């Protein structure tokens, strides 16, 4: 199967906010706000091909047919815990979307992703899923999350992150070549601890002010 596309959203507003988020001195407060704003801008690109339907409306002057998004078919899936930062930004532009959560942790012995939480809306069969996680690092949790989401038979799946490492893109594309990836940047590589370089640090810690 051909690999689905990787889209780097290069809009100046996205890149500007990403630069501010990378800076070590950016506060938790500002980091969270910037992630929210940036995610809404990513959503604009990711949702470009959203299915729509026509409705009849009345303007002050006449009746017309006009388009609306099939918002209820959309399911945003947040990969816990850092995914919630992107989720909020997406919900600010598609408030009608359904939301699922998947929680994974890395087993320190096997380094494999272990699921501890999985809750999806009903009727996943017809839905278009957008799985969100700020950092596509090794790609292991993205692969595990998408494998699990696929068990619910959604109509389509996209993966959205803020930063991707080449290693993570390779791993995700090998496992799920049908899933397009959207990111604000592709960074250089991973360090020995699985952090993206130059990156922005631990996304969860920076969103929630933990260490
Ligand atoms: N997860 C993070 O939060 N940051 C990284 O650099 C890699 C994985």
Automatic annotation (TrEMBL):
It comes from the Bacteria. Binds 1 Mg(2+) ion per subunit. The magnesium is bound as Mg-PRPP. Allosterically activated by GTP. Its cofactor is Mg(2+). GO terms for molecular function: GTP binding; magnesium ion binding; uracil phosphoribosyltransferase activity. Pathway: Pyrimidine metabolism; UMP biosynthesis via salvage pathway; UMP from uracil: step 1/1. NCBIfam families: PRK00129.1, upp. This is Uracil phosphoribosyltransferase.
């Amino acid at each position: 199967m051909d690999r689905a596309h990787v889209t780097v959203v290069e809009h100046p507003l996205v890149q500007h906010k990403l630069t501010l988020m990378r800076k070590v001195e950016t506060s938790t407060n500002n980091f969270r706000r910037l992630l929210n704003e940036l995610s809404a801008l990513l959503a604009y690109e990711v949702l470009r091909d959203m299915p729509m339907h026509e409705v009849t409306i009345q303007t002050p002057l006449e009746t017309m047919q006009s388009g609306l998004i099939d918002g209820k078919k959309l399911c945003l899936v947040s990969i816990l815990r850092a995914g919630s930062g992107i989720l909020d930004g997406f919900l600010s532009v598609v408030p009608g979307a359904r939301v699922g959560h998947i929680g994974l942790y890395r087993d320190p012995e096997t380094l494999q992703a272990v699921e501890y939480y999985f809750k999806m809306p009903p009727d996943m069969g017809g839905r278009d899923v957008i799985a969100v996680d700020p950092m596509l690092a090794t790609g292991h949790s993205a692969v595990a999350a998408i494998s699990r989401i696929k068990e619910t038979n959604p109509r389509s799946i996209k993966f959205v992150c803020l930063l991707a490492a080449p290693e993570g893109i390779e791993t995700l594309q090998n496992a799920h070549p049908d899933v397009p990836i959207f990111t604000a940047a592709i960074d250089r590589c991973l360090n020995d601890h699985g952090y993206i370089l130059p990156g922005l640090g631990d996304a969860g810690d920076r969103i929630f002010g933990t260490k």
